[in-house]
Amino acid sequence: xxxxxxxxxxxxxxxxxxxxxxxxxxxxxxxxxxxxxxxxxxxxxxxxxxxxxxxxxxxxxxxxxxxxxxxxxxxxxxxxxxxxxxxxxxxxxxxxxxxxxxxxxxxxxxxxxxxxxxxxxxxxxxxxxxxxxxxxxxxxxxxxxxxxxxxxxxxxxxxxxxxxxxxxxxxxxxxxxxxxxxxxxxxxxxxxxxxxxxxxxxxxxxxxxxxxxxxxxxxxxxxxxxxxxxxxxxxxxxxxxxxxxxxxxxxxxxxxxxxxxxxxxxxxxxxxxxxxxxxxxxxxxxxxxxxxxxxxxxxxxxxxxxxxxxxxxxxxxxxxxxx
Length: 323
Prior knowledge:
Blueprint: H1 8-27, E1 31-39, E2 44-53, E3 57-75, E4 81-93, E5 96-103, E6 107-121, E7 137-139, E8 144-155, E9 160-164, E10 170-172, E11 179-183, E12 191-209, E13 215-232, H2 249-257, H3 275-283, H4 296-315
Antiparallel strand pairs: 1-3, 1-13, 2-3, 2-13, 3-4, 4-6, 5-6, 6-8, 7-11, 8-9, 8-10, 11-12, 12-13
Helix pairs in contact: 1-4, 2-3, 2-4
């Protein structure tokens, strides 16, 4: 006579519960992780001075960018970024000098930019703007850049001014439709995180009155691509047998599949997969998931899943008797 746990109906129920619970577990994030992303060498931006009005003109120079972004990144159970926000940045731009001919008798408009500093942030977060877990793509226009320090001086025959961006910061919004990428390709064990951010920003600075020669509007444009890298190191926790930063149905499966042996499923690190590992998974089930309070549906599925899985693993194997 078949044991209760060997009946096809019970096996079908068990598989259904396992599949549903696994789907729910993977759908939840491990949580936001603070990561510093350092600008990589040779990151540069083209800084352009643009005049629009009675006299049009443009000049650009290259400014080397150094520093870092501070981000909070949501990772899923597979270690992929699924959301992120910028909580700060320390970006320093090397000095640049620009000059635009204005014609006789005005000469030229000469601009020197010194000590420029940019920061960045994500408004209206959390919740963090989404990141595509497959491609790493995210919308740049949900984030902001701010030129908040440095001085730009402008000189011409009829005009002279100095702009102190610490006193009057300029805020830049990336152009609509622009996307960056955020990738961590090494899976749940963690590894390097790479942020690639194309920059295409334009901001109005001021209007210059040239008297009988009319007026011109001055714009600053920043163009280029910044690459920054950091390190994702998932926290380990009791019951996490696969190192994905959460205790889920996968950990329970690892204990069940290797119970009485060794290897994957050894949550305690004693070299054996036994009742202590089961207790570690049971006591911490749901830990590391993004939701501070597990969804009732997930809990209702997880509890019978633990009981059914253990019973099926211990008593449903041919040749083993109940004790």
